[in-house]
Amino acid sequence: MRDVLGEVYPWYRAGEVFGLATVVSTFRSAPRRPGAAMAVSASGTVVGSVSGGCVEGAVYEEADTARISGRPVLRSYGVSDDDAFEVGLTCGGTIQIFVEPVSSRTFPELPDVVKSLGAGEPVAVATVVTGPDAGPGALGSRLVVWPDRARGTLGSAALDRAVGLDVRGMLEHGTTGLRHYDTAGRCLDGEESAEPGELTVFVGSFVAPPRMLVFGAIDFAAAVAELGSFLGYRVTVCDARAVFATASRFPHADEVVVRWPHEYLAEEAAEGRIDGRTVVAVLTHDHKFDVPLLTTALRLPELAYIGALGSRRTHRERLARLREAGVEERELARMSAPAGLDLGARTPQETAVSVAAEIIAARWGGTGRPLTRTDGPIHTAAGAGDQPSAPAEAG
């Protein structure tokens, strides 16, 4: 939903009712993950996507119907020999999409959500996607949860307390997905079968974007920063040389820092500003920068990826110096160097694609092999839990 909020919020502020479709679960090959959203305005304008094209037409009709009728609905889209092309779902997976009307009446907490997103404050939205027509756990009822407060209600204090506690745990890890309860608030996850009155609650977590720390203000860094920004990272470029580390040279970076790289990384870690989603790209090729920086990085267990550019000769010399500095073999094994997948890259832009591809493969457990040489689902349904090594956030 984060992707569409900037475009739909003016509709909301203008007093418009619009239809919102959100992916709440996926199975097998799924082109979009839970939290992906598509909105339809009263004029028929569409923003966002729930399937990358597979079922957009059918979902458009559902969203427009919900906008007009005022009634939310949960729809499932799968594939079979009979209906594969009827709605366009040909990828072989199954997705569940919750479709609802959104307005200041149905979602009065939305301005607070938008404000939190703008401030980088973590917030989660818990919505009942299966439940009764009225009473506790009514279909479409909503609870917005922050680490220290909550707004809205799912219909009863007991249900709000139970869901709020679980949601804060999910928010801490940035995870998005479904939870199951009875109307008294008892969690039914793990139960062998559904019970009468079971509620299904979709929790969409919104946390700060993951960070990409690019060390070395060179032309390759500009390309890596641009691609990192495109992938949704908050990008920092850091170099000790002020003449090279300028904002004008790195327009796609969120910030450019003039510091000794190892000092900056150590300070960010000490202040709690890196986590298990943070990736580090070391591009300096200079031992006086690389060795202290990599010594620091390889001893930070939080980092999701540590890559270093350089020739194989440069890397052999780098390894020798790191060993001399006391870095252990198990720590060295965490480093991807030379960084990137074997794409035959030549230019800075091609090298950036190679490095980004390796980061994506590490994040999701991909093989890095051509899809023509692999079997099984192309899109995995990891969804519920915003991100495996890096929890997923909603949309």
Textual characterization of the structure:
InterPro entries: MoCofactor_Util/Proc, XdhC_CoxI, XdhC_Rossmann_dom. Residues 212-359 form the XdhC Rossmann domain. Residues 11-78, 118-182 form the XdhC- CoxI domain. This protein is an alpha/beta fold and 395 residues long. The protein has three domains: 2-102, no CATH class; 111-206, no CATH class; 211-372, Rossmann fold (3-Layer(aba) Sandwich). The chain has helices at residues 2-13, 56-69, 110-119, 157-173, 219-230, 261-270, 287-297, 312-324, 329-332, 348-364; strands at 18-27, 37-40, 46-48, 73-77, 94-102, 123-130, 142-146, 149-153, 177-181, 199-206, 211-215, 234-239, 255-258, 279-282, 305-308, 335-336. It has a six-stranded parallel beta sheet, with helices on both faces. Strand 14, helix 7 (287-297) and strand 15 (305-308) form a beta-alpha-beta unit. The protein is elongated, with a radius of gyration of 23 Å. The termini are close together. The model is unreliable at 80-89 and 380-393 (pLDDT under 50).
Q: What's the CATH topology label of the largest domain?
A: Rossmann fold
Number of domains: 3
Pairing-aware structural class of the strands and helices? alpha/beta
Q: Write down the CATH class of the largest domain.
A: Alpha Beta
- E-strand count: 16
* Count of helix runs: 10
State the low-pLDDT regions, or none.
80-89, 380-393
Morphology call: elongated
Helix percent reads 25-40%
Helix-strand topology string: HEEEHEEHEEEHEEEHEEHEHEHHEH
**CATH architectural arrangement of the largest domain:** 3-Layer(aba) Sandwich
The largest pleated sheet is described as: 6 strands, parallel
Task: Tell me the strand order in the biggest sheet.
Answer: 13-12-11-14-15-16
**What is the CATH H-level superfamily of the largest domain?**
NAD(P)-binding Rossmann-like Domain
Radius of gyration, in Å, reads 23 Å
